[in-house]
Amino acid sequence: MATVVTLRLLVLYGSYRADRMGIRLADYSIRQFRKRGVDAELVDAREVGLPMLDRTYDEFAPGAAPPAMEALSKKLAAADAFLFVAGEYNWGMQAGLKNLVDHFQDEWLRKPAALATYSTGRFGGVRAGCAWHPTLAELGMVVVPRSVAVGPIASTLDPEADPVGQAGDALDHNFAGFADDVLWWATAAKEQRSRSSSANHMWNSALAP
Q1: What are the φ/ψ torsions at residue 191 (nearest 5 degrees)?
Q2: What's the burial of 201, exposed, middle or buried (CB within 10 Å: 0-12/13-18/19+)?
């Protein structure tokens, strides 16, 4: 019998605004991936509440990092892939999400990163997506080639994160292929990490006295 692989996906969201709308896209994304059997969970930068970057997690002595940072490091390390739900501010990325990301290093390494961008305008946050690409690559992630851009966000998803009208139908259609790509890369990377881990274990065992 074939082994069923359960994928762990973290959906990272970074708006701190009182009337934020991008949370609709984060909730919608989680729902869509859970329908596909993925263990998907929201990481809300505002709820995590990390300070502006002073020291990264790996700069703290073991056990000395703030509890929220310690807990998030463990979640990131256990994840198979990441979905960044990224809003566009003035042609760029949201400070809240960027600040959260910069607190960590090795947790991201060799894992797929997907981008679902949004804005209140018709460009759907694509310029924020362009800004995120080099940052994610620098952190050692593989950026999934296909992305999703939603805009205007308020007329695409309602407050319950349900698709609205033609724009919502288009999102449903585009998200299906996007999710397939994310799962392909997540599965491939997980299998490769497993092979590398097994090979390293065998090598270390062979070297043991």
Answers
A1: -65, -40
A2: exposed
